[in-house]
Amino acid sequence: MRYTYVQAIAKPKVRGGRWIEVDLQHTQLQVLLSDYHSAQIELAHPTLSSEQYLTLDVIRERVTDQSLTFDEWLDTLGDASLPTVLGKPQLKTVTVDHRDGWMAGFNIEPTRMGSHPDNDWATEQKVDLLLTRPDTDYRELYDNCLVTVNGLVRQTSYSEQGLYVVNGAQVRVDSSETNLSLTDFSKLGGLEFVNLTKEMLYRPQEAAKHYQYAHLNLGVDTENRSVLLVLGGYLHILDNQYKEIGNGLIQIDFNNYPMIQRYYDSRSLMNVSLLDAQLESFEHNESQRVVSELLRSETTIENFLELPESFAVVVDTPNLYVERHQVERSGLPGIFFWHDVPRWPLLCQRGKLKEYWAQDDDGKWVISCESNLVPNYQFEHTHYETLASVTDHKVPSNPYFADRGYLLEIGKDL
Q: For residue 202, which of 247, 156, 163, 251 has the smallest C-alpha distance?
């Protein structure tokens, strides 16, 4: 008596691919082995008294004729037994948990990292933030949480005094309030933070240009792990801005990166002095160089990567996925609607992760953030790469527009 096919789940060979229910009974084995990274195929047999499934690894080891379909291959086995696994294929998922820092009960104060919190520093010298809360393991927070301040992802550190957000208090000078949130990855895997430096840059070919594709050797083991990238405070997660090309190696695509737009959007929220001399020179350009010369500058890329807000985050799981869920706009700035309790980061304002509060309003959840209005810069309506100067001047008739919002589901399939 032969095995018979019941059902299957499989994980496609695509970046961020998720386990899905799929009918593999009449799938050609060549397609099965080339298109799927993993699979669990439930089989029935008259001698089996419980549910069992076959893994794709067993098929790889035993198949000799890949032109057969899976069902045809079962025919060739006859009465032979297979090393099945006890149980039923099941889709299980865990995701990050996201909380507003104030609502999570943290006390948040400006400080200067490396000194005691009680030291009396001048306000302008307190460039960091200190998060404290009773009965909290700050090492665990550091190992598992991404922190955003006013939409930008920041690096953290910790001591017995609390969790420090590096340069998190710089916004206090230019912003009337500090919004802070934490995204907990503990269900997915621990985090390792890697500062980006110009010394990490290398050229795969002599003629390669960093302003086109920047190649970096992170110097850490990324095998069976997932790499996230933070560039100037903006989170990139399994998107087209970068890709892993080897163990510890990444490639960043700067060909269409909105460098000037993000410079203007975020310069009041962090210290961008490494870029100021270059980018501000184009507001009053006496040399009459065109903007493309700035964007095609190795120095620009090196300085950008060395911002404190540019770093890699390595997550201890190879099975990371991300999905965007668009939330409903209300017509009011900073107000969105969602049909369930929002538990994930809110992505909007051209890539910023907006901190938010959520409240149930008769079954519909109201998501409130500082604002989803984004500047409508004049230069974006021109071929600005060919211009001799750019400014942050906005279109007079329509200076701002309301951006869309997305809840960013970050998780892994078990």
A: 251
The predicted model scores a pTM of 0.89
Alpha helices in 175-249 (DSSP H): none
Q: Mention every residue, 6+ apart, whose C-beta is less than 8 A from residue 205.
A: none
Q: Please check whether residue 254 is in contact with residue 201, taking contact to mean a CB–CB distance below 8 angstroms.
A: no
Domain boundaries, the chain: 4-91, 92-188, 190-318, 321-381+393-414
- Among candidate residues 145, 152, 225, the one with its CA nearest the CA of residue 185: 145
The per-residue pLDDT for range 134-149, each reduced to its tens digit, is 999 999 999 999 999 9
In this structure, of 67-71, 109-113, 129-133, the range with the lowest mean pLDDT score is 109-113
Q: For residue 58, give every residue at least 6 positions away whose Cβ sits within 8 Å of its Cβ, in sequence order, or none.
A: 82, 83
Residue 41, by phi and psi: left (phi above 0), alpha (psi -120 to 50) or beta?
Answer: beta
Q: Which amino acid is at 195?
A: N
Instruction: Give Cβ neighbours of residue 154 (< 8 Å, ≥ 6 apart).
Output: 147, 148, 165, 166, 167, 168, 233, 309
Confidence category of residue 115, pLDDT binned at 50, 70, 90? confident
CB atoms within 10 A of CB 211: 20
